[in-house]
Design brief:
heterotrimer, A: 226 residues, mainly alpha, MetI-like fold, C: alpha/beta, Rossmann fold, 6-stranded mixed β-sheet, 39% helix, globular, binds adenosine-5'-triphosphate, binds magnesium ion
């Protein structure tokens, strides 16, 4: 066992370096998902029939197909087919961003629908343009309402990012596999990787919970997850 | 007659074989996950502080780490201490433990949402503790948990695609083999995606049917 | 006056404390068949705790409860279950079973506790629903009923068990003022039929019209007791009198 520990000790800096890429993937995917999610939610609520069908199909596909299959499809299939030279990092970010976008679309859609109609009308009544009303009144409220659901999404994407190793992005999981296949200390190394993910997951979830409490407005009830 | 090219014939044969394997992974894991979820969820709600702490730790660990890592520990890690699991067993054990952790969360939420007045009302009529559990708590908890637990099973269907990583060749494994062999990624993975969409959509329809069957005013989710 | 055998319930010197706070301090109540006692007093005085002790939803720390001359052994679960079957309880917030229809809210205890068969239970339940004016609501769920209807259903559910005594804990406090009347009417109907009751209430009309005796509770003790005519007589300086005067003032402001 001491050998296992010394392997862990020696490779820890190398593994931890992977967490930069992991965090990079998560943050980039969350941002992409946020933008996609908001746009699609607006389309799902206010769009015409055609737009709604299209977006519903998108959400259905990205919620129904496993992330690994999407990674294979995009990285080895579509991106090649379209002659796009994406790095593994970019590919993972796009796939995870599009996936979380589908979930976030539903979250924001629920938030928009739960917003009393009076909010929008009151803003218009004060002389705001429709765009101003959405930006100043609707968005701040639905973003605030969506924070609990976000912490859920964060923890899902973080864990899904470990699948990036199937297309070779050198994040935590891929690095762990690399070291393990050379040292044969699988158990201790994967437990170490598990601990790193565990800490990243709960640190993020707790931070988002803090943010939620910080932004909480008295008398403002929050939506549960999803 | 419309005839499939040899490539497609082989692809569909492989995927259908993989589908059976995926189902053989999903069904025991879903059942095991729900059972563990019920036990762990109940203990986390009603257990004494020590039991509660153990249950909470279990849930936090399996919800806080990627499923791939859990599978790698079971399949590649345990041999380091002399425990060898077959790919299928490792996958089912991993899926069950992970799914159980998430299920316990829904079960716990459902149990916590039952108001103490429901126990009081039943006790005041002379119900025994067992009768309260069986006739009041369980029927209400089932209605409160069904949406979350059903969605968790849908997640499980998707994440069963990770079994191929520990060499248990199911849908995704079969698809990947053919795709690599023929170098036709886009077609293979699109069709593979359709298989999963079919499975997930079927599960969603069944879940919706069950939810409708159990619907009682005042118990809707959201 | 009252002989030993007339008494259906004898509660003797029961005490209860929660975490070092004495909530009930050696409280005794005797109840004759058909008698109605009304508990009044300031919030936190122990009224709910006393009622819940009487059917052992809260098991007393000390003291004795005798129902029809049978002493309840607090350590025997069977004794507690049997006591609760015979003593009905109406709660402030109804405690209806949210997953069952109005009809099944009544039949479930008949079938599971009294072991009646399904048809018998349904017949009995329909009878009770008619009695409280909910004959046409049997298929509705609690979430679909108004507050007044919920409380009437709770009363029907308790009555279906043929209780020897009914305990009512502020049965109208959770209701909209407009819905209180229908529940009061049902309770008055019970009194006319001779139901034995102990009721905590701040509803003046129930106190004046129904109480055979008022028990004024404060700090876990009964500090005053007597018939309303005596306690609430004009010019009396009893605690109950002062309390009811204040309730009257509130009622006037409200109504
Ligand atoms: N389970 C419990 N644990 C701790 N304290 C309790 C418990 N139940 C009641 N108490 C305390 O006992 C005291 C009496 O409560 P009780 O509900 O019997 O009063 P009450 O006379 O019914 O008041 P109200 O008019 O507000 O209903 C209160 O101070 C309450 O906080
Ligand atoms: Mg009370």
């Amino acid at each position: 066992m001491p050998h296992a520990l010394s392997v862990v000790f020696d490779s820890l800096p190398y593994l931890l370096q992977g967490s930069f890429l992991t965090i990079g993937i998560v943050v980039a995917a969350m941002c992409l998902g946020l933008v996609l999610g908001i746009c699609m939610a607006v389309g799902l609520v206010y769009g015409n029939r055609f737009v709604k069908y299209l977006l519903t199909a998108y959400v259905w596909i990205f919620r129904g197909v496993p992330v690994v299959v999407l990674l294979f499809l995009f990285y080895f299939g579509l991106f090649n087919f379209l002659d796009l030279q994406f790095s593994a990092f970019t590919a993972v970010t796009i796939v995870l961003g599009m996936t979380t976008g589908a979930y976030q679309a539903n979250i924001f859609r629920g938030a928009i629908l739960s917003l009393p109609k009076g909010q929008f009308n009151a803003a218009i009544g004060l002389g705001m343009s429709e765009l101003q009303a959405i930006k100043n009144i609707v968005l701040p409220q639905i973003l605030r309402m969506s924070i609990p659901a976000w912490s859920n999404e964060y923890s899902i994407i973080l864990k899904d990012s470990a699948l990036a190793f199937v297309i070779g992005a050198p994040e935590i999981m891929a690095r762990t596999q690399f070291v393990a296949s050379r040292t044969y200390q699988h158990l201790s190394l994967y437990i170490t990787a598990g601990i790193i993910y565990f800490l990243l997951t709960w640190a993020g979830v707790i931070a988002l919970r803090r943010l939620e409490r910080h932004l909480r407005i008295p008398g403002y009830s929050h939506q549960g997850n999803q | 007659m419309f005839e499939l090219s040899p490539f497609y014939q082989e692809l569909l044969t492989s995927l259908n074989r993989g589908l059976l394997m995926s189902i053989a992974l999903i069904i025991p894991s879903a059942i095991g996950g729900v059972l563990i979820g019920i036990i762990a969820g109940s203990l986390r709600t009603f257990g004494d502080p020590v039991v509660k702490a153990i249950g909470d730790t279990y849930a936090a660990i399996f919800r806080g780490t990627p499923l791939v890592i859990q599978l790698f520990i079971l399949y590649f890690g345990l041999p380091n201490i002399g425990i060898y699991l077959s790919p299928y067993v490792a996958a089912v054990v991993g899926f069950t433990l992970c799914s159980g952790a998430y299920q316990s969360e829904y079960v716990r939420g459902a149990l916590l949402s039952i108001k103490s007045g429901q126990y009081l009302g039943a006790q005041a009529l002379g119900f025994t503790t067992l009768q309260v559990i069986f006739w009041i708590i369980v029927p209400q908890a089932v209605r409160r948990a069904i949406h979350g637990c059903g969605n968790e099973i849908i997640y499980l269907i998707k994440y069963s695609s990770l079994a191929f990583i520990v060499t248990c060749v199911e849908l995704t494994g079969e698809g990947k083999t053919i795709a690599t062999e023929y170098f036709r990624f886009t077609e293979v993975f699109t069709i593979l995606g359709l298989y999963y969409l079919g499975l997930v959509s079927l599960a969603m329809v069944i879940l919706k049917k069950i939810e409708q069957r159990l619907y009682v005013p005042g118990f809707g989710h959201n | 006056m009252m002989t030993e055998t007339d008494q259906i319930l004898r509660v003797t010197d029961i005490s209860k404390s929660f975490g070092g706070n004495t909530i009930l301090n050696a409280v005794s109540v005797k109840l004759a068949k058909g008698e109605i006692k009304v508990l009044i007093g300031p919030s936190g005085g122990g009224k709910s705790t006393l009622l819940q002790c009487i059917n052992c939803l809260v098991v007393p720390d000390a003291g004795a409860i005798e129902l029809e001359n049978e002493t309840i052994d607090f350590r025997r679960k069977q004794d507690l279950y049997r006591l609760r079957q015979q003593v009905g309880m109406i709660f402030q917030d109804f405690n209806l079973f949210d997953h069952l229809t109005a009809l099944d809210n009544i039949t479930i205890a008949l079938r599971r506790v009294k072991k009646m068969d399904k048809n018998q239970a349904r017949q009995r339940a329909r009878l009770e629903l008619d009695q409280v004016g909910l004959g046409d609501k049997e298929a509705l769920y609690p979430a679909q009923l108004s507050g007044g209807q919920k409380q009437r259903l709770a009363i029907a559910r308790a009555l279906a068990m043929d209780p020897k005594i009914l305990l009512l804990d502020e049965p109208t406090s959770a209701l909209d003022p407009t819905l209180i009347g229908e529940v009061i009417a049902v309770i008055k109907g019970l009194a006319v039929k001779g139901m034995t009751m102990i009721m905590a209430t701040h509803q003046i009309s129930l106190i004046y019209n129904l109480a055979d005796e008022i028990l004024f509770m404060e700090n876990g003790r009964i500090v005053e007791q007597g018939p309303p005519a005596a306690l609430l007589a004009a010019g009396n300086t009893s605690r109950s009198q002062g309390f009811c005067d204040r309730l009257n003032e509130l009622a006037e402001v409200d109504g």
